[in-house]
Amino acid sequence: MIEKLYFCTVIEYHVKKYRIYLDNCCFNRPYDDQSYLLIHLETEAKLFIQQAILHQRFELVWSYMLDYENAANPYQNRKQVISNWKNIAVMDVDASDIIVECGKKIMQKGVKNKDALHLACALEAKCDYFLSTDKKLLRAAFDEISLVNPIDFIKILGI
Predict the structure, then answer these.
(1) Boundaries of every domain in the chain
(2) Contact by Cβ (8 Å): 117, 103
(3) What's the CATH code, domain 19-157?
(4) What is the DSSP secondary structure assignment for residue 31, as one 8-state letter?
(5) What is the C-alpha separation between 104 and 55, in angstroms, rounded?
(6) In what order do the strands lie in the sheet with 129-131?
(7) What is the DSSP secondary structure assignment for residue 95, as one 8-state letter?
(8) In the structure, what pLDDT confidence band is assigned to residue 159 with cuts at 50, 70 and 90?
(9) pTM (2 decimals)?
(10) 1 vs 149: which has the higher pLDDT
(11) Please, are residues 122 and 21 in contact by the beta-carbon 8 Å criterion?
(12) CA atoms of 99 and 78, how far apart (whole Å)
């Protein structure tokens, strides 16, 4: 109970309500092997961020790409838990020619197709941060949005 009170107090100090996009890797992190310290820490950070979303400290953006990738999840329970976040999102980005064209430009920077479309959706929604646990994707640099893993996101905010 003390941690929750501390959590709410700390988050309330942030003036701006950041708009964030979590990719499929991020949503699935709690289902990865938690015996690895980094995976466990990323999971805890991601769960912390999701609690902040539930407390309306951050605005979550969803997209058709999250629907698409989540539909391929062979674990029905995991698929349902992840898809429930769509109802909490402040925006759901649909497929469009603009997204596809933006995705093509992102791919020219060496980003894979699906990742590029996720990023294009986040850019279209004017997200401040794109959260992922995909190390290769996180190496990409964009002026319009910050790509970070959940741990670094918490560090950036000073939480």
Answers:
(1) 19-157
(2) yes
(3) 3.40.50.1010
(4) G
(5) 35
(6) 91-93, 59-63, 19-22, 129-131, 146-148
(7) P
(8) confident
(9) 0.89
(10) 149
(11) yes
(12) 27
